[in-house]
Amino acid sequence: MADNQPTIEKEKKTAYSGWLLAVVVAMGLTLPFHYIPAHLKVFPKDHLTFSNTFITQTDIDEIKERYNSASNSSEQNSIVSEPFIKELFEQGVIFKEKTNYVDFRRNSFETEEEFETEEEPESSDEKQTRLFIGKWKIEVYSGEDRFNGSTTYNSDLTFISFITFNNIEVSFGGTWKVEDSTLCWELLSSSHPDIFSKIKACDQIQWIQSTIYQTKDIEGNLEVGHRMNE
């Protein structure tokens, strides 16, 4: 019995060493990296932690839903600034940033493949004019405020818009044209002249596709349009 004692102790030490090695290897694989199987991505964490090691498509969808459900752009920017979500942006896992806002095109598609196969943005004034014609649901981002409404761009280069401003629905109309990749419009009539008076303006067309566009005015306010079914 005494002769077997060193052997037993050696086996215990070997088993303990094997267990300890397995723990070290597991920690070495999980602490430093994020794993996203759905996108075949592995990238390092900002610091050693067990959290957010394996990221599923459900996790990604929940982050997207949280962002899209934000009540204003300030809350959206706060979400984007979180270190882990910011890293997902930089890795191109969910969507990409464009200027100080999310590239809203990416939010319109369920998968990376859908986004990549959508047609490239048009560049010529003639093509952009053709793409604008129709009815659009619009969102205007002005600082921390967001306003919703709709605009119809007619083929005779007139337009009519409805927008809710401080709980007041305002309608206005006028003429429009695309010139040198800018959307130029002149407001000729308004239901509330005290809010929207007769003015002329040109907004930079950042991009436009068949179902979505984004423009930016001289003050940096963004307008995002999503085509509506006729």
Q: How would you characterize this protein structure?
A:
The protein has 230 residues and is of the alpha+beta class. It folds into two domains: 82 residues, no CATH class; 103 residues, Beta Barrel (Lipocalin), CATH 2.40.128.280. 32% of the residues lie in helices and 34% in strands. It has seven helices and twelve strands. Strands 5-6-7-8-9-10-11-12 form an eight-stranded antiparallel barrel. A two-stranded antiparallel ribbon has the order 1-2. Strands 3-4 form a two-stranded antiparallel sheet. It is elongated. The relative contact order is 0.09.
In short:
The chain is of the alpha+beta class. It is 32% helix and 34% strand. It has helices at 5-30, 57-68, 73-81, 83-90, 104-107, 112-117, 125-132; strands at residues 33-36, 41-44, 97-98, 101-102, 134-142, 145-153, 158-165, 168-179, 182-190, 200-208, 212-216, 222-227.
| CATH fold-level name of the largest domain | Lipocalin
Helix-and-strand structural type: alpha+beta
Summed up, the domain count is 2
Number of strands: 12
- The radius of gyration computed from the alpha-carbon positions, rounded to a whole number of angstroms, is 27 Å
Number of helices: 7
CATH architecture of the largest domain: Beta Barrel
Give the oligomeric state of the chains in this entry, treating copies of one chain as homo and distinct chains as hetero: single chain
- Identify the overall geometry: elongated
Spatial order of strands in the largest sheet: 5-6-7-8-9-10-11-12
- The overall pLDDT average reads 76
Characterize the main sheet.
Answer: 8 strands, antiparallel, barrel
Distance between the termini: 90 Å
